[in-house]
Amino acid sequence: MATAIDPENIIIEDKKLRGSVELHGSLTRGQLALDWTESLWNEEKMTFGKFCNKRRPIRFVVKYNIPLLDEMIHKTVKKCL
After folding, report:
1. Distance, CA of 35 to CA of 32 (rounded, Å)
2. What's the pLDDT band for 78 if we cut at 50, 70, 90?
3. Residue 32 belongs to domain spanning
4. Where are the beta strands (DSSP E) in 1-81?
């Protein structure tokens, strides 16, 4: 929630990745599979199936400002008491 409230100060590093939900795997059904290397998203594979370029990248927060997040949580809890 903190990243939605104050993204400029909370998010230190983010990465846009493409992914697909595995629906047919016996061990990973429902798991979000991400391509961290971008090898699945090269130009020749981007035109068909679950890897088509119509799938927008998802923003993942890799690093965030822990002291600021901690401060936000403490202020919120104090207001509730």
Report:
1. 10
2. very high
3. 19-55
4. 11-17, 19-21, 32-34, 58-64
